[in-house]
Amino acid sequence: MHEWALAESIVMATVEEAQKEKLKKITQVTVFIGELQQIEKEIFLFALNELAKSQKPPIIKDAFLLKTEKSTLTCKNCGENWKYDDMKKKLNETESESIHFIPEVIFVHARCPRCGSPDFEITKGRGVMISSIKGVR
Amino acid sequence: MEPRTSVIEKRLKNINRIIAVASGKGGVGKSLVASSLALRLSQKGYRVGLLDLDLYGPSSHIILGVNDEFPIEEKGIIPPKIHGISFMSIVYFTGEKPSPFRGVDISNIILELLAITQWGSLDFLIIDMPPGIGDETLDVIRYMKTSEFLVVTTPSKVAMGAVGKLLTILLELKKSVLGVIENMTMTDSSFIKKEVHRLQVRYLGKIHFDENLEESIGNPDRLLKTLAMKDLNRILQKIKL
User: Fold this and answer.
1) In this complex, which of A4, A12, A108 lies closest to B97 when CB atoms are compared?
2) What is the pTM assigned to this prediction?
3) What does residue A31 show for φ and ψ, rounded to 5 degrees?
4) Is the ipTM here above 0.90?
């Protein structure tokens, strides 16, 4: 349940930002979940809602809107673009779980499907990000 | 918006002291000093964590003889205890495969490790740093504001050249530098001592080259009985560690 730790970072960052913006109430927080991190959405949402209780400024019930961001991996060597989904089957359970904890270890466990290079980059869909915070001033 | 930076302070708030064992140069014995320091403090009854931040070439797990241990997933990840030390390393996620990371990936990995690792209450967190003044050093300075630096060099002029640069930047950034350890000495040269004093940093002493040390790698009980560790203990006493 390392989703809890990530949810905690989302709630803390949201509250910090809301305090900076002098919001009295947080009404909606849109969170992008990168495909690479393979977050269990239900657990993540449960953790967010639990952690949202008794915050200042208050976060209204069901304020979190989760959106999955598909990954794009781009090879720096040959320019090939592909998705994590395309290569998932080639990874074993340990490799996949390691990427769940630390998405960057994909560079350790995977290679460009076209040229075999380990020198590619995660251009989209890495991990959790806050895309927007809405509230009342 | 990047959320992980917000939680790092909370993850580290119950750690009394953070000591980064660093050097400007590779191969000077940072990992050995970091692991031995962690073992020594743990044997003295302190609650100790060890974080291997050498992401390209982690080696603390080899020194400590880590085998099949893996962190427990519990509201984050809880590092397994190795010889009484809460030990965290990228090696749990990479195995022994090569790690071709670029700078931006290094910073992301450090952020992720700091955001999800649940250290609990510790008296000391020792960090085994990679060589140089790159992303890892800058990130430790940025995210671990209370960190103190214990710097290691060899008697080599080449090593001291790079170590001098590290010391200069640490001093410029007003970081606490506990001192410099001269490792693997074979002569009575005072070159390093003079250079360290020139930079107005504390010179802590020499660890003599110990040809039997290699045999104790992976066996902490044996490691702590080596002549090199006797030298290190004498040095650490000077700074009350």
Assistant:
1) A108
2) 0.96
3) -120, 125
4) yes
